[in-house]
Design a protein that fits this description.
It is a single chain. The protein has 353 residues and is an alpha/beta fold. The protein has helices at 25-30, 44-56, 59-79, 100-112, 122-136, 154-163, 171-175, 192-204, 228-235, 246-256, 258-262, 264-272, 280-292, 295-316, 333-352, and strands at 2-3, 18-21, 37-38, 91-94, 117-119, 143-148, 167-169, 212-215, 220-221, 224-225, 239-243, 323-327. Strands 1-5-4-2-3 form a 5-stranded parallel sheet. A 5-stranded parallel sheet has the order 7-8-6-11-12, with helices on both faces. The protein has a two-stranded antiparallel ribbon with strand order 9-10. Helix 5 packs across helix 8 and helix 6 (154-163) packs across helix 15 (333-352). The longest helix has 22 residues, at 295-316. The protein starts with a strand and ends with a helix. The mean pLDDT is 94.
Length: 353
C-alpha cells in the first residue's frame, strides 16, 4: 500500500481524500507537500529526545520509547482531527523517508478500516521532484522580464496581468519580500525549500507556448535564492521596461511602502545603513526629510540618487537582448489598465520573435 509520486502534476489528481504529514511541526513548517495537514506522531521535543537516545544509548531503546509516543499521539489524532472521518476515508500518509513514522500511523488507520497508503520515499521523494524541476530541467516556457525603475508599479501590473489570465510568477510574493533594502515585510520569509516548492508547483502548471511574465530581480530576494533554471531563463529573456515620471513614482512609492513610513525607527535605521554608499550630508538630508514627514521628496531623492543609477547599471548588462518600452504618464488605475493591454501585446510579440 505504497503510492509513488512520478511528477509534481500528480498532486493535482491524487486519488486520496487527504494528505497527512506525520513529521514534527518543525519539519512541516520548513516545507511540506502542498495541501498536506500536519498530524505529527512525534513532537519536536519528542523527536529530539528519541534521536538522542538512539545515538547515545540504544537503537532498540529508542524504537521502544518512540513506539509508545507514536501510539499515544496517534490516539490523540483519532480522538480529535480524525474523529469525524467516514468509513470510506482514504488518506495518503508520509514522513521523511516513507518509513517508520508514516508506516506506524498508516497501519493504525488501516486497522480502523480506512484505506491508508504511504508515499514511496516519503517527503524526500517529493523534494527530489522539486529539485529536478528547478535545478536539472530547463524552465518550462518562454520568460519575459518586466523591468523598470523603482516605483513603476511592476508588482501591481503583474497582479493585474494575472487577473486577465496572463501567466505570471510573482517572485516577491512567493519570497514574501519586495526585493530591496526597504523590502522586508512584517511576516518572515519562508524557508528556501518552501519557496522552491511553491515555485515548482506554479511552474508545473505553465503553458510552454505562452509568455511567462516575471519581475526583474537579482538572483536573491531577501535571503531567498532564485533556483538555477529560472535564473538562467531570466538572464537571457526579452525585457519589457516600464517607465514613468519621477514625481508619479515618488507618490506611488510613498503609498506602497506605507508600512515602512509607519515604522519610523526602522526607516531611520534603514537610511543609516546606506552610509557606506553615500556622502554623509546626503544621508543627513534623507533623515531630516523622514523626520519632517516629507516622504515624497525623500522617495524621489532615494530613487534619483540611489536606486535609479543602480538599476541603469544592471540594465546595461541586458542591452543586447530584445526589449520594448511601456511608457506611463501616471500610475493611476486607468493608466495601469492601459499598460496591461500594452504589456500583453508586446510580450506576445517578444516571444514570437
Amino acid at each position: 500500500m505504497v503510492y509513488a509520486l512520478s511528477s509534481l502534476s500528480d498532486l493535482d489528481c491524487l486519488p486520496f481524500d487527504q494528505v497527512i504529514d506525520v513529521r514534527s511541526p518543525a519539519e512541516f513548517a520548513q516545507d511540506h507537500v502542498p495541501g498536506a495537514i500536519n498530524l505529527p506522531v512525534l513532537s519536536n521535543e519528542e523527536r529530539a529526545h528519541v534521536g538522542t537516545i538512539y545515538k547515545q544509548q540504544s537503537p532498540f531503546l529508542a524504537r521502544k520509547i518512540g513506539a509508545a509516543l507514536v501510539a499515544r499521539n496517534a490516539a490523540h489524532h483519532l480522538e480529535t482531527t480524525l474523529a469525524d472521518k467516514p468509513k470510506g476515508y482514504r488518506p495518503l500518509v508520509y514522513c521523511w523517508r516513507g518509513g517508520q513514522r508514516s508506516g506506524a500511523l498508516a497501519l493504525i488507520l488501516r486497522q480502523v478500516g480506512w484505506q491508508a497508503e504511504t508515499i514511496d520515499g516519503g517527503y524526500r521523494s517529493f523534494r527530489r521532484l522539486v529539485q529536478q524541476a528547478l535545478y536539472d530541467a530547463p524552465w518550462p516556457g518562454p520568460v519575459v522580464v518586466l523591468d523598470g525603475n523603482t516605483g513603476t508599479a511592476k508588482t501591481e501590473l503583474l497582479a493585474l496581468l494575472s487577473e486577465k489570465g496572463e501567466q505570471v510568477i510573482d517572485l516577491e510574493d512567493l519570497a514574501n519580500h519586495r526585493g530591496s533594502l526597504f523590502g522586508a515585510r512584517t511576516d518572515s520569509q519562508p524557508d528556501q525549500k518552501a519557496f522552491e516548492t511553491a515555485l515548482a508547483m506554479q511552474a508545473a502548471q505553465l503553458d510552454s507556448d505562452r509568455p511567462i511574465l516575471v519581475e526583474a530581480e537579482s538572483n536573491k530576494i531577501g535571503r531567498i535564492n532564485l533556483p538555477p533554471s529560472l535564473w538562467r531563463a531570466m538572464m537571457t529573456a526579452p525585457r519589457l521596461t516600464v517607465t514613468a515620471p519621477l514625481p508619479a513614482r515618488a507618490r506611488y512609492l510613498t503609498q506602497t511602502y506605507g508600512d515602512i513610513i509607519a515604522d519610523h525607527a526602522r526607516l531611520i535605521a534603514t537610511l543609516a545603513s546606506l552610509r557606506p554608499l553615500h556622502p554623509r550630508d546626503r544621508i543627513e538630508d534623507w533623515q531630516k526629510l523622514a523626520e519632517t514627514g516629507d516622504y515624497e521628496t525623500l522617495a524621489a531623492s532615494l530613487m534619483q540618487n540611489h536606486y535609479d543609477p543602480r538599476y541603469e547599471r544592471q540594465r546595461a548588462r541586458f542591452c543586447d537582448l530584445p526589449s520594448m518600452t511601456v511608457q506611463l504618464d501616471d500610475l493611476g488605475a486607468a493608466s495601469l489598465a492601459v499598460a496591461v493591454a500594452d504589456i500583453k501585446a508586446k510580450a506576445a510579440m517578444l516571444i514570437s520573435g
